[in-house]
Amino acid sequence: MGSAFSCCGSEKVEEGLTTITTPNNATWRIFTYKELHTATNGFSDDNKLGEGGFGSVYWGRTSDGLQIAVKKLKAMNSKAEMEFAVEVEVLGRVRHKNLLGLRGYCAGTDQRLIVYDYMPNLSLLSHLHGQYAGEVQLDWKRRMKIAIGSAEGILYLHHEVTPHIIHRDIKASNVLLDSDFEPLVADFGFAKLIPEGVSHMTTRVKGTLGYLAPEYAMWGKVSESCDVYSFGILLLEILTGRKPIEKLPGGVKRTITEWAEPLIVKGKFKELVDPKLRGDFDENQLKQAINVAVLCVQSEPEKRPNMKEVVNTLTGYDPRGKVMQTRIETLAYKEELLAFDQTTDDDDRDPGNQELGVFGHTKVQKMRAPYNQFGDQKMH
Ligand SMILES: Nc1ncnc2c1ncn2[C@@H]1O[C@H](COP(=O)(O)OP(=O)(O)OP(=O)(O)O)[C@@H](O)[C@H]1O
């Protein structure tokens, strides 16, 4: 593992413990196996917070009282070794309020353990569809805070770290919530570091069904816009309370985009919103957020916004920003379009109206196009 850390920063020894300081001052330390064993009550099942594809996560408390979450990677085959190396390497580079940083690790035995701060409100998944779903702790304000914070974390990975980082597994179980419901994007085990000047890479597909961008799922083409796509699905999930893929009676699967499409096209925004909110939401914010989600989940990656545009639009800093307005169709114009279509049903228009006419029809077609192709997702 030495190599995984070598580029992360200098090493210094403090009170008998090794701490590693990254260039941006994030520090972590090496834990002993014994220390983590004691903290987690011998990795007892009672301490288990959850299980992912690569291992289990346990709650623990260190001798100095710090609450931690310890990810114990499954048997150390080369895949798990890689996952561990990538996660620690990536974590060493990042420090942002919306990214779950590294508290430490243990690599001294045949076990590979990663230590994080414990997030008392667990994952977004547990609030949307899991053990907290019945409690409805996610009101509208919190949902927007989670959406914006997660977007800011991803923005940082895409635009502020060098080399850029593509997360590749943005999903509700990888968004953890602190005591204030501030979201922290976690789980960098699949992340890819993208060298400067490289627009995309081809790679083996990792990630989770329902969140995968079509070009990535089908051709392994990975770029930042894969994360943008996954974020769009996550945003729809936050707004609607629906799972990315749901099983209908009879076993047929339906994606969240297939469900949302007809409602969005008809402008029935209120019917999209999670009924658990009992109508308590900000309608303008909802429309804006749905706009963003629609743009993010377009099947053509080059049409998707980047995370800066996403954050600007969600925060209202740039509600109809020039880039967004010229590059992509927003549903904010949908009502105008429908009104226009009702008064004009042929293409023989006044040249003065030409732009609006073409814009209108193109927009509806374009807007539908990605949805029509969402059928792709059934393949995932
Ligand atoms: N720092 C943490 N604080 C609190 N709970 C955590 C923490 N880290 C992980 N968990 C819990 O442990 C569960 C398992 O996490 P893990 O990252 O191993 O897998 P996953 O994201 O659910 O699945 P996959 O490995 O397939 O991506 C999470 O869903 C979450 O509920």
TrEMBL record:
CDD domains: STKc_IRAK. One of its GO terms (cellular component) is plasma membrane. InterPro entries: Kinase-like_dom_sf, Prot_kinase_dom, Protein_kinase_ATP_BS, Ser-Thr/Tyr_kinase_cat_dom, Ser/Thr_kinase_AS. ATP binds at K72. Residues 43-321 form the Protein kinase domain. Coiled coil: none annotated. GO terms for molecular function: ATP binding; protein kinase activity; protein serine/threonine kinase activity. GO terms for biological process: signal transduction. It comes from the Eukaryota. The keyword Lyase does not apply. SUPFAM superfamilies: Protein kinase-like (PK-like). The keyword Manganese does not apply. Keywords: ATP-binding, Kinase, Nucleotide-binding, Serine/threonine-protein kinase, Transferase. Belongs to the protein kinase superfamily. This is Protein kinase domain-containing protein. The lineage of its organism: Eukaryota, Viridiplantae, Streptophyta, Embryophyta, Tracheophyta.
